[in-house]
Design goal:
With 163 residues, this protein is of the alpha+beta class. It has 2 helices and 9 strands; from the N terminus they run ααβββββββββ.
Length: 163
């Protein structure tokens, strides 16, 4: 008496072949899709700025309206062995400075918030700032302007600081 194969037995024999075909097909997806972690991006609201040994991260301006005062938010890291003075100036020419100790870091919105007298863009726009240090010279940077809402609510601008 001869045994015939049942559909279940045939399916078991084909299962490894089907798995291999599916695996091979899925690996082909990688050929047409780039690896997203290879693309650099800024995972925050603000922009990074590199000035020689000084790095500024997550730089934003918090302002209620164009032409009004603004507060800078971000972190500054000084990797040099000397203290650094950083000057921030808007398009209107008024500037403010921040001192960062040697091998130190400062939050721009920390205990003494850094303010600009006037911001040249509405919230949702991009302001042009001139940022300078003695070592790096002057650099023009385009910084997002955000409204004082949510996380930035405590940074609502007040009277600008004097240079």
């Amino acid at each position: 008496m001869r045994q015939t194969s049942s559909p279940a037995r045939a399916a078991r024999r084909l299962a490894p072949v089907a798995a291999a075909v599916v695996a091979l097909g899925l690996t082909g997806c990688q050929l047409t899709n780039p690896v997203q972690t290879n693309d650099p991006y800024v995972p925050s609201d603000g922009v990074p700025v590199d000035l020689d040994q000084v790095q500024i991260r997550d730089l934003v301006v918090v302002a209620e309206s164009k032409g009004g005062p603004g507060t800078l938010s971000g972190a500054v890291v000084n990797r040099s062995g000397e203290p650094v003075t950083i000057t921030f100036a808007g398009e209107g020419g008024a500037s403010t400075t921040v001192q960062v100790p040697a091998n130190g870091q400062e939050r721009l919105s920390g205990t003494s918030p850094v303010s600009l007298a006037a911001v040249n863009a509405d919230p949702g726009g991009v302001a042009t700032l001139q940022i300078s240090t003695a070592a790096a010279g002057s650099n023009v940077v385009h910084v997002p302007v955000l409204p004082p809402e949510g996380y930035y609510e405590t940074l609502a601008p007040s009277a600008p600081s004097t240079p």
